[in-house]
């Protein structure tokens, strides 16, 4: 599949057209950012680890009935995907209270959230991804009420599938962020990526962090070891490509 013109360059991924107008190539770069892009470093092979982890997770989700944009992983850091018209909403699911939740509300750190919290934020770094509600989503004209229901339903299904998937790898899925978009027929599909960049993953025994929170806390030298640990635990030996 030939890479054509660049159509979007995000903080850590670049999206290119292909010769098919309903497919794109997503290149996972080695950049790592925090604070809405305020801090940026390059981490060797980070793009490849995130691409392979995302591809594995998208496959697991497809096997469990969640439609995603994933088609193929032609290179370790390059994903071939269905072209989506992305909805500018970050859907966050939380199983354990931590992060911005405990900074914003009087909820005890580590509290188990059952049922999980589903949060929707407006994806816009300039505005620091402010939290949305239904009337704000309507006013911004970014999704219909029915679509909001679909996003929440899909995010909760993803949570169910991935909580079990990570549990089998000795990892607690604390919280995560997903993004969705519409394909050419208007179907809502999971897009973007699911990797340690957008999830909080804790070792089930030690509760050690295995995700980007390490970078947010300035522990840059520990980040890649954590990502490699996640990769080693969830990618079976015969599927390892890095
Ligand atoms: O920081 P906060 O507690 O709101 O993050 C909740 C979850 O959503 C975390 O797993 C974090 O990695 C993810 N997230 C993200 N991108 C954002 C905001 C949050 O991936 N812009």
UniProtKB/TrEMBL annotation:
Q: Sorted alphabetically, which Gene3D superfamilies does this protein's record hold?
A: ATP-grasp fold, B domain (3.30.470.20), Phosphorylase Kinase, domain 1 (3.30.200.20)
Its Enzyme Commission number?
Answer: 6.3.2.6
Q: Which SUPFAM superfamilies does this entry report, sorted A to Z?
A: SAICAR synthase-like
List keywords of the entry alphabetically: ATP-binding, Ligase, Nucleotide-binding, Purine biosynthesis
Q: What is this protein called?
A: Phosphoribosylaminoimidazole-succinocarboxamide synthase
The species this protein was found in = Methanobrevibacter millerae
Signal peptide positions on this chain:
none
Show where the SAICAR synthetase/ADE2 N-terminal domain sits: 7-233
GO function term, MF aspect, one: ATP binding
